Amino acid sequence: MAFARLSTFVALVLGATQIVNAATTKRVTCATGQVTANAACCALFPAVDFIQENLFDGGECGEEAHSALRLSFHDAIGFSIHGGKGGGADGSILAFNSTELEFHANGGIDDIVARQFPVFQGLNLTAGDFVHLAAAVGTANCPGAPQLSFFFGRPPPLAPAPDLTVPEPTDSVTKILERFADAGFSPAEAVALLSSHTIAAADVVDPTIPGTPFDSTVGTFDTQVFLEVLLKGTLFPGNGSQPGEVKSPLAGEMRLQSDFAISQDPRTACLWQLMVDDQKLMMAEFKAAMAKLQVLGQNTRKLIDCSDVVPVPQPFTGHIKFPASFSKKDLQIAVSSFNVSFSLISLQN
Ligand code: HEM
Ligand SMILES: *[C@@H]1O[C@H](CO)[C@@H](O)[C@H](O)[C@H]1NC(C)=O
Ligand SMILES: *[C@@H]1O[C@H](CO)[C@@H](O)[C@H](O)[C@H]1NC(C)=O
Ligand SMILES: *[C@@H]1O[C@H](CO)[C@@H](O)[C@H](O)[C@H]1NC(C)=O
Ligand SMILES: *[C@@H]1O[C@H](CO)[C@@H](O)[C@H](O)[C@H]1NC(C)=O
């Protein structure tokens, strides 16, 4: 009896909460004409336009878009679920750039910080909101990307993140997975986040060949990087072997030691292989892991879901392909139990 009353009470309270939620999530049309779930998000549409114009050359999936995504990772990962590290996705990498840019793992990040700083100053956003909105918008410029979510309302960062929170390509898989776990991410989420390397290039791994991409379709958010990291490595694209680099299969392509090791490790190889040519899986896993990354260390109850200000990316349809002259015989797959199950079998040359 008491139980029945309690559940009636709970039902009433839940009902009331749903009404409140319905009221606050009522769609509104902003003065600028766009429609959003929350009036507080209206201020962001002009900010998105400003970012597209002044940071991304009018909406391109170019180097700034790629680096904005990398910056969101280097900002957010400065966090531990056990405390004692940084504030997470708080924009500290921008606000405390003179400290964080000194960290070895932030090599090459100085360019995007310098590009973002004046754009940040031109907007009324906190550093955290700016860094993570720019990452969502820049990623949306890349065909095939999921529409990342954006939560609005991060307070200004309090302090720089400490050093040694960002994984290095020279780190072992164990060290990398331990760092991800310390920040709250599973091995599967680490693999999902590495989908980002499909729109990535290296400037400082081998400084003689800046801008060397990790796959052959650097302007498309496809699953090509997951395939190409599995091809037998035969060459170094620049000045011989550099720290954090292993042999790549193609001239003009860089392979990170960490990407390769993660593709071959029993803890991560299965998902790595499953990602190959499964655009839907990759999009869903990357979107979910990014949603977590971009609010790391934040009190999400105080943030407003403004995901509908993020542009909808062009889709990637069809299948990825082996690069010219490559085929199944060039695959290098350490975890043999998955040979039969994964999607490569149906891939075309
Ligand atoms: C195991 C963890 C990771 C390691 C060791 C790693 C390492 C690297 C390295 C060495 C570079 C090249 C830097 C340069 O020479 O300029 C790079 C580029 C990049 N990384 Fe990662 N990364 C990791 C995870 C991630 C994650 C989780 C993201 C995003 C969610 C990300 C996004 C990117 C992007 C977009 C670039 C290209 C930047 C550009 O083209 O300007 N990385 N990464
Ligand atoms: C770093 O931040 C300071 C403000 O703290 C700013 O004046 C400076 O331009 C920033 N540096 C870069 C490279 O963006
Ligand atoms: C700046 O942003 C804050 C927080 O979103 C808002 O309260 C304030 O009205 C804005 N100021 C201007 C000048 O737009
Ligand atoms: C090439 O690499 C070697 C060994 O890592 C280094 O000593 C040399 O300075 C590099 N050359 C150039 C042009 O960077
Ligand atoms: C899986 O692939 C590897 C490398 O291609 C090969 O050496 C191994 O025999 C294969 N295993 C099975 C069970 O097919």
UniProtKB/TrEMBL annotation:
It is found in: Secreted. Disulfide bonds join 30-42, 41-306, 61-142. Ca(2+) 1 binds at residues 75, 88, 90, 92. One of its GO terms (cellular component) is extracellular region. Ca(2+) 2 binds at residues 198, 215, 217, 222. Heme b binds at residue 197. Residues 123-310 form the Plant heme peroxidase family profile domain. It comes from the Eukaryota. Residues 1-22 form the signal peptide. Its EC number is 1.11.1.-. The record marks 70 as: Transition state stabilizer. Its cofactor is heme b; Ca(2+). Pfam families: peroxidase, Peroxidase_ext. The active site is at residue 74. Keywords: Calcium, Disulfide bond, Glycoprotein, Heme, Hydrogen peroxide, Iron, Metal-binding, Oxidoreductase, Peroxidase, Secreted, Signal. Its main location: secreted. GO terms for biological process: cellular response to oxidative stress; hydrogen peroxide catabolic process; response to reactive oxygen species. The keyword Ribosomal protein does not apply. It is an enzyme of class 1 (oxidoreductase). SUPFAM superfamilies: Heme-dependent peroxidases (SSF48113). Binds 1 heme b (iron(II)-protoporphyrin IX) group per subunit. Belongs to the peroxidase family. Ligninase subfamily. This is Peroxidase.
